[in-house]
């Protein structure tokens, strides 16, 4: 009982502080893109529940997650299917969002070209123009299989992407959804845009 | 425009023709998921040449694409080689191979005690298996060799009898 009232006093103090600093009420809407099996659904599940990861069945149609908090900002995200036949839907959801997460399976050498092609289409055709794009290199926990950031940057021609999207509007992060590592910095980066 | 570009960029990959799908679906065992009892599976692992249900394809995706590469028969495209693997593979063939080799590897005594144990479905449906239950069945040397055998057959090379 006592603990609870102490907790609530602190809580309201903190809330006041947050409001004073201008953080209160910040909200962001995300769209999560990438090839099938990059880890989009698993990432969102982890962000929403904070809990263990598990394997999910493939996503066939877009669905919106419940709200979750990261970096003291409330987010809501569109989880998009990554299969070829449903990628044409990506464009329609991008315009509603304040930031784009693009996941790449860093351990999948064979499909990097395909991922690069999709990324190039989004940026080159100005579908994501003006939006912050965070490229998340997932599955970096697979130490033997995962490619280095340098290699990936070279193969996806990251310099060109930066030039087209604007240097400040694109960034690249190494993450492991399985271990719960790396994506926090991506959210910190996105937070600055909101 | 977008769609056309995809087609030209990956000109070697095409969505599976209805005729090919028919052939693949008619292979022995392909009427039910390779890992559970679900009928009419529409997902596949092109690494093992097997058909899977939606749920089980999720488990395969969790293994990493170097172990099992999952595709949707309806939503993804396939290379000619991948289609070939699916046509010469099949659930029955894969499960029989894995089961036989698994049994052979067990010591004689244990083998006699567990004659009726069907490793290929219990491994994947056993809810007590921690983490990803498909790992037991597919992330091991026996399964690795089976993949190499399939690949060799598609490429018209002699089948390997052991891992390189």
Automatic annotation (TrEMBL), chain A:
Keywords: Endoplasmic reticulum, ER-Golgi transport, Golgi apparatus, GTP-binding, Magnesium, Metal-binding, Nucleotide-binding, Protein transport, Transport. GO terms for cellular component: endoplasmic reticulum; Golgi apparatus. Coiled coil: none annotated. GTP binds at residues 34-42, 82, 138-141, 177-178. InterPro entries: P-loop_NTPase (IPR027417), Small_GTP-bd (IPR005225), Small_GTPase_ARF/SAR (IPR006689), Small_GTPase_SAR1 (IPR006687). Mg(2+) binds at residues 36, 41, 59. It is found in: Endoplasmic reticulum; Golgi apparatus. PROSITE patterns: ARF, SAR1. It comes from the Eukaryota. GO terms for molecular function: GTP binding; GTPase activity; metal ion binding. GO terms for biological process: intracellular protein transport; vesicle-mediated transport. PANTHER family: RE74312P (PTHR45684). NCBIfam families: small_GTP. Belongs to the small GTPase superfamily. SAR1 family. This is ARF/SAR superfamily. The lineage of its organism: Eukaryota, Sar, Stramenopiles, Ochrophyta, Bacillariophyta.
TrEMBL record, chain B:
SUPFAM superfamilies: ArfGap/RecO-like zinc finger. One of its GO terms (cellular component) is Golgi membrane. Residues 99-132 have a biased composition (Low complexity). It holds the Pfam family ArfGap. GO terms for molecular function: GTPase activator activity; zinc ion binding. Residues 98-136 are annotated as: Disordered. PROSITE patterns: ARFGAP (PS50115). This is Arf GTPase activating protein. It comes from Fragilariopsis cylindrus CCMP1102. The lineage of its organism: Eukaryota, Sar, Stramenopiles, Ochrophyta, Bacillariophyta.
């Amino acid at each position: 009982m006592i603990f609870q009232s102490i907790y609530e006093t602190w809580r309201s103090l903190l809330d006041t502080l947050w409001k004073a600093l201008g953080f209160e009420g910040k909200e962001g809407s995300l769209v999560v893109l990438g090839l099938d099996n990059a880890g989009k659904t698993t990432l969102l599940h982890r962000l929403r529940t904070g809990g263990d990861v598990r394997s999910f069945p493939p996503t066939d149609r877009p669905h919106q997650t419940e709200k979750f908090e990261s970096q003291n900002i409330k987010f809501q995200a569109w989880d998009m299917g990554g299969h070829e036949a449903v990628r044409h839907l990506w464009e329609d959801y991008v315009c509603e969002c304040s930031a784009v997460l693009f996941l790449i399976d860093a351990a999948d050498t064979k499909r990097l070209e395909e991922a690069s092609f999709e990324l190039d289409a989004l940026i080159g055709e100005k579908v994501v123009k003006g939006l912050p794009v965070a490229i998340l290199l997932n599955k970096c926990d697979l130490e033997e299989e995962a490619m280095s950031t340098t290699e990936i940057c070279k193969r996806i021609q990251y310099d060109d992407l930066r030039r087209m999207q604007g240097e400040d509007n694109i960034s690249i992060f190494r993450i492991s959804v399985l271990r719960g590592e790396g994506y926090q910095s991506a959210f910190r980066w996105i937070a600055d845009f909101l | 425009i977008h769609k056309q570009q995809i087609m030209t960029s990956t000109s070697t990959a095409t969505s599976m023709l209805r005729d090919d799908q028919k052939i693949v679906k008619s292979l022995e065992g392909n009427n039910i998921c390779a890992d559970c009892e679900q009928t009419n599976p529409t997902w596949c692992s092109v690494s093992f040449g097997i058909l899977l249900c939606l749920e089980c394809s999720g488990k395969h995706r969790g293994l990493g694409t170097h172990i099992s590469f999952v595709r949707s028969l309806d939503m993804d495209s396939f290379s000619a080689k991948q289609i070939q693997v699916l046509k010469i593979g099949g659930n029955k063939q894969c499960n029989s191979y894995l089961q036989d080799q698994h049994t052979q590897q067990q010591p004689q005594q244990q083998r006699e005690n567990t004659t009726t144990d069907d490793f290929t479905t219990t491994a994947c449906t056993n809810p007590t298996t921690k983490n990803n239950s498909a790992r037991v069945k597919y992330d091991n040397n026996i399964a690795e060799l089976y993949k190499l055998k399939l690949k060799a057959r598609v490429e018209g090379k002699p089948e390997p009898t052991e891992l390189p």
